[in-house]
Every structure is written in structure tokens, then in C-alpha cells.
Amino acid sequence: MDPLRWSPSPCTSRPPSPRTPPCEMLGHVGIEAVLEQLKIKAMKMGFEFNIMVVVIAVIWLLTGQSGLGKSTMVNTLFKSKMWKSTLPGLGVPMPQTLQLQSVTHIIEENGVKLKLTVTDTPGFGDQINNDKCWDPILGYINGQYERYLQEEILITRQRHIPDTRVHCCVYFVPPTGHCLRPLDIEFLQRLCRTVNVVPVIARADSLTIEEREAFRRRIQHDLRAHCIEVYPQKCFDEDINDRILNSKIRDRIPFAVVGADQEHLVNGRCVLGRKTKWGIIEVENMAHCEFPLLRDLLIRSHLQDLKDITHNVHYENYRVFRLNQSHALPRGPGWVNLAPAPADLTATPGPWKVRWQAHDSSDEEC
């Protein structure tokens, strides 16, 4: 059994601050009931999670089929028919320009409701001239920050501001077996300053185990060489438990994944997998691919952390950037005269200038 999959959650309890010594209690009070209160409230409100998938068009050209496109990955990730796949060459023209498409569904499991929004980026990197092809994606991400900011600075705000900010971007790397392309490097350098980025190797079944590991090491080297900080960022590890868990994750990123939304019978049990003439590639079998690690990272262990970093770091950077850009001072409690957002929202503030207060001063800088 893979130790990474069963490691403790990064949301671990921290020891009390040395400035606030614990008080000796004389009897039971019932403080732990606040956890049940939070659970009940969360169950009523539900959760929101917004994910973006960036699929390089060369994947379709290499494979000739939609083996692991946006639809297959999302459907496998949440075990639901969220997105209908379309095979190229069946009368549907490939997009000539990058047009972002979003779909929202309510997923309910054991009484817990999740409002999931998936944003697709068809046509990215598919042009002859790919100069600044990332602008629509960065503009969309910053546009969601601007939308949240405009709601937040109102004098009379909504009790619950709809959160359409992108919490995670899953970046598909084509299984070339070589290294990151210049287009990948240019885009990732800009993208990682704006949103949490999780790179994955798509269609990993097209590589042997040895090729897959060598490819992973080359990608990790490229990320370090070009100062690309993908999620989970080392500078946001809050304690030793975070470092232990996230170090294991960072050593396995990019995850080599295979997606499939069809079940097959293997040894008397139904499994999700892709059927080939050599056998069944089981999606949830760690001996076949690392899709379970991706699912655990996005849903089971780090979903709330992704949202926290989006709000406390990426959105906070954008908020400070926009408030400084407006050249306006507050006119009293709760009033901010914010100038309209510029037409070009692709400008991104410097990398991670806003830091968590809980961050230990001994941690290295990003």
C-alpha cells in the first residue's frame, strides 16, 4: 500500500502558542461540540470547488483519440458524467481560437454537497502562432478575482459571496518522454503566480515504467531550473507534518495518470479501466498509474488547502495589486473607491508577496 495515500492530512492541530499558556480545567465544559456545530453548518451550506483543465492540443494529434482529455479525466475524478467527450474528426471542427468553457454540477455524497465548476481550455497551443496564447486563460482567472473583489468591497455585501475563483489548474503534459516544451515553460511561469497548478503526465500508459520515471525527473528538473513553483508550494508548508506529507507529493509530481469512465470485469470485480488487446489498464490500481494520488490530492487531503491558498495568497496578491493600482484611499469604515479594472487583466502581481501569518519565519523564501 502506498504510504503517500494514507498520510495524515496537512490540516493538523498545532500546539498552543508559547505566549498563551493552556489553562487548567476543573471539569468538562463541552468545547469539542464546536466541531459538530461546524460540521452541521458546513453540511447545510455545502462546498464550492472550481477547477481548470489545460489540455495541450498535441495530445489529440499524438493519439488520434480522446483517451485522456478533459471529459475523461473529470468524469473519472468525480465518478460522474459531468462532461460529454467529443472525438475529433467526427464532423466537429477543432476550435480555431481559445474559448474557455465552464460547466457546473452539484455532486452529493453521503449528505455532503459539492458545487463543482470545471473550466476547459480547448484550442490552447493549437495555433500556428502561439504568441501570448495564455492571455485568455490568465484573463479569465484574474477576471474571477475581480468579480469576487467587486462583491467584497461593497458597503452592503452579500452574506455569502459566490466563489467563482479558480482553486486549482490541472495542467496536462503530453507524454513525449523528453522534457517540457518552451510553450509549457512560458505558460507555467505565468500561471503558477496566479493559481495553484498541478501538472500531470497524460496518457501515461503510452510510456514504459522506465520512460515514465525518466520523463518525470526531466520535468522536475525543468520546473526547478525555471523557478516554477507548482502545488504544493514548499514555502507554504506550515509545520513538520506538512513538510513530510507534501515532500512525498512533490517527489511524485507530475503524476502519471490514465483516465477511463467505463467499468470492466477483472477477476470477478468491476473496475474502472481502459481495455486494450494486452489487457485492462486499471485506473485505480497504483501498479498501473498514479490517478489515485491525483484524486486524493484534489479531493481527499488538500481540497480545503487549495481553497485556502487561493483566498489567502493568490487572491490577496490580486487584491493588493488592484487597490494599489486604484490610487484611492478609504473614505471611512467599509468604503473603498476602487477604479474599474483595466481591459487587460493578464497582468499578474509579483510572486507570492502575501504570506500567511502562520508561516514559520525559519522557512525559506519562495
TrEMBL record:
It comes from the Eukaryota. GO terms for molecular function: GTP binding. GO terms for cellular component: cytoskeleton. Pfam families: Septin (PF00735). Residues 1-22 are annotated as: Disordered. Residues 54-325 form the Septin-type G domain. The keyword Transcription regulation does not apply. Gene3D superfamilies: P-loop containing nucleotide triphosphate hydrolases. GO terms for biological process: cell division. The chain crosses the membrane at residues 45-63. It is found in: Cytoplasm, Cytoskeleton. Keywords: Cell cycle, Cell division, Cytoplasm, Cytoskeleton, GTP-binding, Membrane, Nucleotide-binding, Transmembrane, Transmembrane helix. Belongs to the TRAFAC class TrmE-Era-EngA-EngB-Septin-like GTPase superfamily. Septin GTPase family. Filament-forming cytoskeletal GTPase. Septins polymerize into heterooligomeric protein complexes that form filaments. This is Septin. The lineage of its organism: Eukaryota, Metazoa, Chordata, Craniata, Vertebrata. The gene is SEPTIN12.
